[in-house]
Amino acid sequence: MTTAAAIGLGLVAAVCFALAAAYQHRAVGRHVDRTADSTQLSARHFWALVRTPRWLAGTGLAGLGAVLHINALRLAPVAVVQPVGVVAVPLSVLLTARRTRTRPPPVVWAGVLATVLGVFGFVLLTARSSRSEVPVLRDILVVSAVLAVICCLLVLAAKHAPGRWPTLLWASAGACAFGLASAYVKALFLLLGARTPLTSPAVWGTGCVMLAAYVLGAWMVQHGYLAGSPEVVVGALTVTDPVVAVLIGLVLLGEGGFGLPTALGMILCAVLAVAGVVALSTHHPQVTAPVPDITHPPAPSHPSSNRSVS
């Protein structure tokens, strides 16, 4: 019963995240000069965004989704809760299609289908694990260091990558941070449930890393919105996030116990989901369209063309 409730909370959270992606993507696109040479967010850009009602609405929806997601993690293992967010992918595609009044090409829907099937297959294979172990401080430090290095490498690659790759790399870096944060939410519940003192380094260290991961993950995702479409960002998030969270659950929280056939099935499902996101990022109309360069505006029309005829 608690697992069903956790999945239900995860589904509602996914809807909130999809709506938040749509709101924030539009706000970033309108208030940041998006050119072929400018794909970075500065402090000035962020100050403009925090004064934008649309971006604040998206942030509020993301916060509500985070609260629901945290409660879902309180009720079920990370391996069960994280992959449920894949439903945000088709929702994002539908929201953007409705906003732009365009019909996504079949290859985009094929990418969505592959992503959904891959992640749902992943969750069905991992849902059998219902136990979680209390983590130890040494493992928490090791996992934090490894994920920090991975995020730094992805950010450096995103800053120098050409074409569609910055969107995927920024979103993947944010997803790694969010996956770490989700796993650490579960770790905190386990530590507190085991009556670990609040003054213990394992408790406050896990809490500090969790908060930092949420903040830095949000910063990375905003760069992803600037570099590409919300569907690509959401797709990368809903694939990389659960994979990272599940791996941390396996290593840090002892949510393993899988046999070889299950592990192979998990790998195949993960490959299918990644292939779906790559197809989505490659063939999405917003990705294949040329990026407008506002640094060279069109020449003004001849004055005579604007003269009214009496």
From TrEMBL:
The chain crosses the membrane at residues 75-95, 107-128, 140-157, 169-190, 202-221, 233-252, 258-280. Residues 289-310 are annotated as: Disordered. Coiled coil: none annotated. Residues 1-20 form the signal peptide. Keywords: Membrane, Signal, Transmembrane, Transmembrane helix. PANTHER family: CONSERVED INTEGRAL MEMBRANE ALANINE VALINE AND LEUCINE RICH PROTEIN-RELATED (PTHR40761:SF1). This is Magnesium transporter NIPA. It comes from Auraticoccus monumenti. The lineage of its organism: Bacteria, Bacillati, Actinomycetota, Actinomycetes, Propionibacteriales.
